[in-house]
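ingest -> fold -> write
write: protein_1
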Amino acid sequence: MYNGKKLEFTDAQGIFVDKKGVIYIADTENQRVVCMDKKGNVSKLLLLPESELIPTEFKYRPVKVAVDSKGYTYIASDGSYNGAILYSPKMEFLGFFGANTVKATASDVIKKLWDRFTSNDIKRAADEISLPFAFTDIVVGPDDFIYTTTGKGGKSLIETGQICVLNPGGKDVLGGGDKNFADSKVGTYLFATLSQSLNNIDVDKDGFVYVLDTTYGRIFWYDSKSNLFSVFGGSAGISEQKGTFSLPSAISVNNGDVLVTDAKKNTLTVFGMTKFGKNVADAQKITLSGDFAASLKNWEAVITEDSNCQLAYRGIAKAYYDTGDNIKAMEYARLGVDRDTYAKAFGLRRTELIEENFYLIAAVLVVLIVAIALLIYFKHKKKIVLIKNTKLKTALSSVSHPVEAFRLLKEKGEGSLIIATVLLVLFYVITVLNDTAGGFAFTVFDSENYNAVYVLLSTVGLVLLWSLSNWLVCTLASGIGKLREIYIVTCYSLIPIIAARLCNLVLTHILVPDEGAFLGILLTACTVYSLFMLIIGIMRVHDYEFGKFIGTAIFSVIGMIIIVFLLFLVFMLVQQVLTWLSTIFIEIRYR
């Protein structure tokens, strides 16, 4: 009742009860939030506030309500990209809170700038404004931080950053903007992949987060650091299996139990925590408190029940690191794919090895320095020639003296196809090894998704494509270089990149990420120098000035694109012909 009148709800989508027992109902279609006691006596109606902060086109359709321990009220409105509507404990409108942001890639920025330069009335009329997505759920955590979900906006799927944890200033402190909180892969249903929608959320007293995927009916269980504990539930389909859902609509956590409603079945499903789940949760709570050593027994008990629990291996790694056993910490960190703990333990273990073998390491370094000094001395005094093969010497000298080396290659024919091919194969092998066998702290290798054929095409294929395209273009542009010479120059120019990637491969097993910043600089510098060598070499073999090289290089890149397109077209045609022949064969066979 309100002012003697009976209120009716129309498609109310959200409800919340604060610590004083006040019930807040998001009466969506009636565009209001109803505040009442347990007997149904309405104390206040939160209608659309009158404020300059409210846009004129704003549509007030409250779907979720949350109230923190201090009495601040947060209302999520359907379709609102401004964030949650915020009221003070005195029910004064304070503004909008914690709006999502629009993510823009470099290509988006370039496209926007291009559109501005080439804008006209027709383009302006067809412009689409990219707006942030609206919250689909909003709850208050035990620390009074606001937890939100943004599962789906209109027809667009939110693939990353579906969960936000907002501090009192409205800033996301979870830092999961690039993290996909759902599955990276989903199956197909009737040949179509359905969108995952993390639309509902709740948080228990320990800060563990439970998120409901309303498409597949699954519940994702995370801790406060976004570590995934478990995924349970599922889509019912045409079955009536317990623990599955046809149209899941809401989730709530109560004393360790997870409650999920199904709008189609009109059911309430309660999931109770198992003994194993409680062990994992208790162990993680100790770990998150910072008492890593105390969590060791708990995690070891978890491992005895589930030897594939990566979270347990991470906890054990932290425990051993905390107790100073860096060897075991590194071992378990590898099993738990915990690169941060591995890097810390590796750094300390490396220091221990250096201290234990300091005199041996110093002696080896002194011997190496003396040996190199003697080699240089006798080489100059006795005029010893270390490399007698002229072509190999030319190839190696192309790094230090590219102008002279490429002149000899052109005028004296001192280039070698064998050496060039060996360098190209080495380039491919080193690239694969960098991707697969680099230091654990530096390398993220996914054996299931890694495609060595793609790497072959992006290394060997790119060199061959450039050589062919450049020869075709320069032949029409009075270039005197032969295909053989272009290929050799291109392969020789790879030497700095090969050296940089070889150094990277070795040093990632010696350094920790905090010390490896210069590795990126080294690779960039060597790549630039390789490009410089390529420019010098192409100019030499074609007898071009720099300006003409730039022009032919641009056309060579265009030629590469055309060649790839033609190859793809031929591949498609061959595939269609083979399919046609296969169909003919089947028809003949069965007739």
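write: protein_2
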Amino acid sequence: MGYGAGNLIPAAVLALLVGALVGFFLGRYYHQALSERRDRERSAEKQNILENARAEAREIILSAKATALGLRDEIEQETRQQRQTLRQEEQRLNNRRATVEERADRLEQRDRGLNKRHSALDKRANELQQAHSKQLAELERISKLTSDEAKELLLQQVEEDARNDMARVIRAIEDKAQATADERAQKIIATTVQRMATDRVADLVVSAVPLPSEEMKGRIIGRNGRNIRSFEQAAGVDVIVDDTPEAVTISCFDSVRREIARRAMAKLVLDGRIHPARIEKLLADSKAEVSQDMQKAGESAAMDAGVHGLHPEILKVLGRLKYRTSYGQNQLHHSVETAHIAGLLAAELGANIQVAKTGGLLHDLGKAIDQEAEGTHAALGANICRRYGVSPIVVHAIAAHHDEIDQETIEDVIVEVADAISGARPGARRESPENYLRRIKTLEDVASSFEGVSESYALQAGREVRIIVKPDEMDDLATVKLSKEVAKKVEELMQYPGQIKITVIREMRAVDYAK
């Protein structure tokens, strides 16, 4: 029994091996058959694709041929049209060329005709020139004058007639303008001055400091002049200690520094403690006080004048005019007064009141710094206002109020007139007798420096000059011309408030005696 079971195991193994071999060959055969079928299917599919591609290619070729034929027809048609257009253009150019050639022929014929006429005209002009020369020679022979002499004689006569006519026209125009302008100007100025009443008179900045006793002078000077030297160096002024009883004098060209020094000296005298350290302390305090006073004075002046919106720096510079005088007139008061007068004049004339007021208030702004910078006070004031955004119209009025530049608007003229009225009113200004006599003498010398002047007199405190000319040396036109030349020279050489009237008198006297 055990022997039979052992023989069955190898048989089973053999059977399995045979089965495996049979399965292997069957599987290989199946796979080979499946692969061949797939290859046939792929070949058939490739054949179908190729057939489809060939069919599409044939359709594309046919479509391309049809398109090419259509394009060829269009190109041929367009070519025919262009050829036709070119033929038409060529025909038009040929016609135009023929027309141009025809015009050229006509112009050539006309040119030949003009040349003939020009030759004839030249010949005629030569004949006329010869005839003119003969007539001129005959006239010179008859008149016994050459052509140049006759021209000069004729020009002299024409010039004399023109001068006489010009003098009559100028006199008529001036008389007519004077008749209407004087009346209107006097009415406006009288109304303005009447409405602008003021109680301010000429003012001087006082630079004398009173002392309680003569002993205080010695304390101000100090040991070996130590105190007075310290004060002068720190303040930038001169301290004059003379024989004036119980007073010392502060001297300085800068009015602001003089005011600072005056206040500091008054405080030193009141305090009694005078030494270099105390001097520097009181000078610094006085400088701060004066600076604050100038700012307040500028703001107060702008408020009094009715001018608002000014830059703080402009108000500060305006306040410096509180310590500046001109011929004894306080310049800050003068500026406010000029603003009021300018506003009234502008209202009477229908001008811009605010522009006139602002120009009048700021017209002398440059006098606050004219000792520190170069240039006229009108130009300096205009530059300051331009820098801080003042209206260009106002800036121009400031720059033009002394005729340094041309006046362009009525406000420019109003500011100048208001300035003259404020400075020329009675009690506004005063000058020393020496300066007055020097100004009168200079005025008469300027008037007498012109040729043909017999005598000249300064009248009305130098506000009018009367010039008597020699009637045999000057005619009416020369008299008018002389008045303008004298006025121009006075404006160039002299400085004066208001205006000066120039009157030229030409008087002819015939004297005879009955015997």
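write: annotation protein_2
The beta strands are 208-210, 238-240, 247-251, 325-326, 329-330, 453-459, 464-469, 501-505.
The chain is about 70% helix and 5% strand.
pipeline exit 0
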